[in-house]
Amino acid sequence: MRVVKEMSREDVRISIFSWNNKYIIKYELGPMEQTFKLDEYDVLEEKELDVFFEGQFFDQVKGRFNEMGKSFRAQVENL
């Protein structure tokens, strides 16, 4: 597995890996993570992956983290 890029944006850690002809895009925030896989053949240049760090897609990732966090906190409180 090759690390293509690592960065943080708005407290979300973003890692991109190349493995088995796929890009693995991983977002992490606290104890939660979201992972997406994309065929390398769908991308001409690695810098095209930058669209996953901004705009509507990234806003949806952050929104999903918000919902995940609410669920997780509620469950922890019920232990």
Give a quick summary of the entry.
The chain has 79 residues and is an alpha+beta fold.
Molecular structure report:
The protein is an alpha+beta fold. It has one domain (2-77). The protein is 29% helix and 41% strand. The chain contains 1 helix and 4 strands. The chain has one helix at residues 55-77; strands at residues 2-9, 12-19, 22-29, 32-39. Strands 1-2-3-4 form a 4-stranded antiparallel β-sheet, covered by helices on one side. The mean pLDDT is 96.
Gap between N and C termini: 37 Å
Side by side, the strands of the main sheet go 1-2-3-4
Radius of gyration: 14 Å
User: H/E element string?
Assistant: EEEEH
User: What would the average pLDDT be, to the nearest integer?
Assistant: 96
Number of helices: 1
Number of beta strands: 4
Shape: elongated
Beta-strand portion reads 35-45%
Oligomer: single chain
- In terms of per-residue confidence, which ranges show pLDDT below 50 for 5 or more consecutive residues? none
Largest sheet: 4 strands, antiparallel
How would you classify the helix and strand content by structural class? alpha+beta
Count of the domains: 1
Please give a handful of descriptors for the protein shown.
single chain; 79 residues; alpha+beta; 4-stranded antiparallel β-sheet; elongated
List the helices and strands and how they pair.
Blueprint: E1 2-9, E2 12-19, E3 22-29, E4 32-39, H1 55-77
